[in-house]
Amino acid sequence: MPKRSLEDVDERVVSAKTDSSSVPKSLVTDDGEVPMDEFNGEVSDEFDSDGEIIEIDGEDDDEDEATDEQEFLKKQEAKAQELIKKDEQEEEGNGQQLYLPHMSRPLGPDEVLEADPTVYEMLHNVNMPWPCLTLDIIPDTLGSERRSYPQSILMTTATQASKKKDNELMVLSLSNLTKTLLKDDEEEEEEEEDDDVEPIIENENISLRDTTNRLKVSPFATPGQEVLAATMSENGEAYIFDLGPQAKAFNTPGYQIPKSAKRPIHTIKNHGNVEGYGLDWSPLIKTGALLTGDCSGQTYLTQRTTSKWITDKQPFTVGNNQSIEDIQWSRTEATVFATAGCDGYIRIWDTRSKKHKPAISVRASNTDVNVISWNEKIGYLLASGDDNGTWGVWDLRQFTPENSNSAQPVAQYNFHKGAITSIAFNPLEESIVAVASEDNTVTLWDLSVEADDEEIKQQAQETKELRDIPPQLLFVHWQKEVKDVKWHNQIPGCLVSTGTDGLNIWKTISV
């Protein structure tokens, strides 16, 4: 619609308050006066009335309005000061606020968790084609106590593909793993070239017929020679592979892996079609001794003779048909091992027993005991984690037939809000424990910390969230649906964990 000029508007234009300058040109005389006969009486009265009101009452109204405006401004200023003070208090609080994924408020729809780079010495994420339920580290020949960067890791994992035929056992070589700790400006300038180095990932895969529930590498594995790895499959079979050729391929250009190396060297079929999760290699029997436990409560021992692998026909069992969830060989006694089960018991066994019955059984939980870990340096300490999210450490010297239902752990924590899925003593620091949970976190704990430490008391007073956190808790790492976590024996403080979002390779400033 086109704009209309003032000339286009006829006498219908009416204004309540106006002067000669705002009257249509056709209504203004040559001397600038408005002829009154052009307006009716009502309009004329309006003009007079408005003029009188403005002339008589205008000053009083201005004073009232000024007073009201001053009061309004004072109120607004007071409100602004209150808001500023409140914001300052919140900022001070936020400076000390801790966010724990399973304890703090849930994330909003547009919020995501980001790792704080100032608390990680190293942090790398590896995307996988499928989720992996389990992993293990392959010992390498690069030396122990490695602290310089970039780092290299040799490891293996297995997939949980949507179709069984797509599952694989994967051997991974991860190199050029750089330090991710924040540096100051000078260090950044000096190490610009190093920062440009990207991690290198190489893989060799072996096709599998089913999902792998658990995977373990022999502690005597040696790249370039024999690298024994065992898997517990969802179809009830346990496989033993030699991953030596796969490990050799990473360091030998042009090397062709023989077809025979892509098949298991031995298959354990004693479990029938009953799947299992219990699996462990003996750390003391160099020829190779493997324990496998299934969901019907049966545990079989498989050992290598000079010519072949032999599995005992008689299983170790208590006959209650309750699932064996985890198995751990003793680190100090070659014939002793422990099991954890859905019946809530931790049982200590001796392979020399002709009856294949446990030597001691102790109730550790009122629900499933999912995982256990034997301390690498202190042979009588065993850690366990259950379905309620509780984990603890047991002194096996206190296990007796008399206290089988009343034994108490030497330390116990119910910090996690989901089932414990993995637990592992640090092989280099006997007091450090890593715990993974279905609440999407991996926590690191130092059992040597005393609760009455003055520094800890002061921290708890300064940050209120710390009052609800055990002083032994060192670190909380977030990972979606984390299933397994392992320490690297040759890189102090380094861990590898697996969840539905892939693999995390990380090291914190805490350990």
UniProtKB/TrEMBL annotation:
Key word Repeat present:
yes
For this protein, the record's PANTHER family field holds: GLUTAMATE-RICH WD REPEAT-CONTAINING PROTEIN 1
Which portions of the sequence form the region Disordered? 1-49, 86-106
* Biased amino acid composition, Basic and acidic residues: 1-14
Nucleotide-binding recorded as keyword: no
This protein's name = Ribosome assembly protein RRB1
SUPFAM superfamilies in the cross-refs: WD40 repeat-like
The primary site where this protein sits is nucleus
Acidic residues: which segments have biased composition?
30-49
Q: Which segments carry the WD repeats?
A: 317-359, 413-448
The places in or outside the cell where this protein is found are:
Nucleus
UniProt keywords (A-Z) are: Nucleus, Repeat, WD repeat
Record domain Histone-binding protein RBBP4-like N-terminal: where: 110-177
